[in-house]
């Protein structure tokens, strides 16, 4: 399916997979306000790979949540494939997320009772794709990520690096416009982290998927097309 086909609407023509326009975010509690992001602008093209680094508490996870439409900015707007999250209700957001976005976290969040292939098939099942097709697509992407010999293994029998590759395969199997990754190699040893990171960025580029990664690891960040530092609410 064309990944620019919006859930239930016409295709959107846009030069950018993902855009942030003047995005600010302030959290409030009863008597305090914390401004985490201050007029952040960002535009990521299809197939482009960018890294966001920054000190603990600088707002990296907050920004990723806004990019994924999981939270709303206090000001400004975030667009995925030319569609602003702010113009969608919850149901449309979740359909658009399933269709146009993949997410990878530090912990793989694979379902332990399902095999690698079944885990990767999950987003396709949610879309009600025929099982045979979903099986073939999951197999193909796992093979491309070097896991052809692990299709029928459950996560408990896989290494940490293999689990993260499966998580990446699950994020990419729908051919999304963009993958958002939050410390995807944070749990791996150095050598495995490098291998997994290379596999992720190469796959994203090969499929024309934009890849936005938050990482503490400057060496890995420098393997992307652009590195941003989040500091005092600004993306520098
Ligand atoms: N839901 C929330 N309510 C109130 N404050 C929040 C909320 N979410 C985040 N914050 C605050 O926003 C700031 C940035 O947090 P965030 O988790 O985005 O930082 P981070 O750069 O991802 O940190 P780390 O690298 O430690 O994960 C912190 O001061 C945090 O306390």
From TrEMBL:
<dbReference type="InterPro" id="IPR003439">
    <property type="entry name" value="ABC_transporter-like_ATP-bd"/>
</dbReference>
<dbReference type="InterPro" id="IPR017911">
    <property type="entry name" value="MacB-like_ATP-bd"/>
</dbReference>
<dbReference type="Pfam" id="PF00005">
    <property type="entry name" value="ABC_tran"/>
</dbReference>
<dbReference type="GO" id="GO:0005524">
    <property type="term" value="F:ATP binding"/>
</dbReference>
<keyword id="KW-0067">ATP-binding</keyword>
<dbReference type="InterPro" id="IPR015854">
    <property type="entry name" value="ABC_transpr_LolD-like"/>
</dbReference>
<dbReference type="GO" id="GO:0044874">
    <property type="term" value="P:lipoprotein localization to outer membrane"/>
</dbReference>
<dbReference type="InterPro" id="IPR027417">
    <property type="entry name" value="P-loop_NTPase"/>
</dbReference>
<protein>
    <submittedName>
        <fullName>ABC transporter ATP-binding protein</fullName>
    </submittedName>
</protein>
<keyword id="KW-1003">Cell membrane</keyword>
<dbReference type="GO" id="GO:0022857">
    <property type="term" value="F:transmembrane transporter activity"/>
</dbReference>
<feature type="domain" description="ABC transporter">
    <location>
        <begin position="18"/>
        <end position="236"/>
    </location>
</feature>
<keyword id="KW-1278">Translocase</keyword>
<keyword id="KW-0997">Cell inner membrane</keyword>
<dbReference type="InterPro" id="IPR003593">
    <property type="entry name" value="AAA+_ATPase"/>
</dbReference>
<dbReference type="GO" id="GO:0005886">
    <property type="term" value="C:plasma membrane"/>
</dbReference>
<keyword id="KW-0547">Nucleotide-binding</keyword>
<dbReference type="GO" id="GO:0016887">
    <property type="term" value="F:ATP hydrolysis activity"/>
</dbReference>
<dbReference type="InterPro" id="IPR017871">
    <property type="entry name" value="ABC_transporter-like_CS"/>
</dbReference>
<dbReference type="GO" id="GO:0089705">
    <property type="term" value="P:protein localization to outer membrane"/>
</dbReference>
<keyword id="KW-0813">Transport</keyword>
<comment type="similarity">
    <text>Belongs to the ABC transporter superfamily.</text>
</comment>
<keyword id="KW-0472">Membrane</keyword>
């Amino acid at each position: 399916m064309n990944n620019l086909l919006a859930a239930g609407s016409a295709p959107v023509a846009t030069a950018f997979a993902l855009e942030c326009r003047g995005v600010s975010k302030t959290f409030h509690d009863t008597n305090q306000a914390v401004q985490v992001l201050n007029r952040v602008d960002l535009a990521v093209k299809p197939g482009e790979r960018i890294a966001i680094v920054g000190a603990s508490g600088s707002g990296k996870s907050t920004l990723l949540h806004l990019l994924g439409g999981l939270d709303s900015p206090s000001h400004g707007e975030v667009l995925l494939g030319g569609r602003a999250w702010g113009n969608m209700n919850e149901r449309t957001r979740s359909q658009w997320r399933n269709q146009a976005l993949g997410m990878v976290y530090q912990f793989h969040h694979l379902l332990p009772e399902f095999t690698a292939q079944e885990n990767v098939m999950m987003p396709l099942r949610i879309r009600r794709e025929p099982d045979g097709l979903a099986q073939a697509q999951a197999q193909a992407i796992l093979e491309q990520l070097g896991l052809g010999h692990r299709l029928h293994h459950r996560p408990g029998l896989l290494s940490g690096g293999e689990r993260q590759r499966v998580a990446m395969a699950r994020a990419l199997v729908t051919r999304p416009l963009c993958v958002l990754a939050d410390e995807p190699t944070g749990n791996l040893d150095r050598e495995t982290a490098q291998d997994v990171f290379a596999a992720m960025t190469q796959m994203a580029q090969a499929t024309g998927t934009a890849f936005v990664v938050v990482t503490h690891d400057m060496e890995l960040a420098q393997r992307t097309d652009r590195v941003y530092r989040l500091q005092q609410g600004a993306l520098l």
